[in-house]
Amino acid sequence: MGLNIFDIVVAKTFRIEDKKNNFSGFYLRELINNFRESIASSLYSSVDDWTLLQMLAVVVKFEFPDAGIQNITDQYLNKLKTEHIEAVWSDFKIAVAKTFDFFDNCLHIKGGRLIPYRYFYLTVTAYFYRNQKPDYSFLDKYFWYYSFHNVELLKDTTQLWQHITFINQQKANSTYSFNQFEIDKNSLRKSFYSYRGRLSRAILSLYANQKPQDWAKPHKDVLSDVYYLLTDKPNLHHIFPVNFIKQSGIASQIECDSLMNIAYLSQITNLKISDKNPLDYLKEYDEPALEAVLRSHLIPTTILEWSRADALPENALSIFIEERITLLLEALRLKLDGIEFNVFDTENRTNN
Prior knowledge:
This protein has helices at residues 5-13, 28-38, 49-63, 74-77, 82-106, 120-128, 136-148, 157-173, 185-189, 198-209, 225-229, 242-248, 253-257, 267-273, 278-285, 290-296, 302-309, 316-335, 346-351; strands at 181-184, 236-238, 262-264, 341-344. The protein starts with a helix and ends with a helix. The chain has a two-stranded parallel sheet. A two-stranded antiparallel ribbon has the order 2-3. The relative contact order is 0.09. It is mainly α and 352 residues long. The chain has two domains: 5-178, no CATH class; 186-351, no CATH class.
């Protein structure tokens, strides 16, 4: 197996210490490892070497326009030079730490698996690099706008550099404007869990961002660090359980697997609920705090009313999904306050 690009850059930029000629040693792998140790408590400390190298290349390109770093492909990563890395390293570390802190403590996204676009690591680091007065409200809008926009607007390197130009304009003079935001209700309706799906991760990120509470223990955040570290994918629960839907025949497979039918639950609560009718299992948690808990999951409280009335409408899941889409869009509208917000529905267009 050949060397990967990180190994190659480490080798090419290596410099042995020469006290006689006053040259200090340089070993990129050690710098990266030491940085990881300094943020060991962060859930983002495991971001891979290749991504960190690309983040570094973006900063070097910004700081040294003539360095020949025209892109983040391996061809250009191979042009990284020791002196350029040394020059940016101190401020680069600060920017990366702030990026991880933004994802974790501002957006409440507990782990890199849910970041909708990998390139967000690069653009947000570019924003924090040597930025004395970062505007977190701008950054929040930026993240949610591009995570949910109906068109994928951060999927290639051409778009990456357009983003970096955009955020650097805001960084330089604090003025910025977003184009109209577009979102298709049907894309939310038909969204399924996908480890690589941009919209899937965006929806799960928004659910996490609401700081959802534990159904069984209100006022306790359900997204604990251990909870994320112990699993390759978030511990997801079908609000209308799969087997219950199959047995009752109340919905289609699409509705059953929609992320609109998904919530974060602790493993213990998830196992306890199992395949029960939601009318039944909600009775076990129906205390004064439950309505607020459901709202923290962007779950319509209509389902609680059904439970209390002990009656489930024939098209219950369809009603539930539509109401949850409305709640999700309301949460997004708040985040994108001041941006023209256009909702359309391709399902309606198809049916008309």
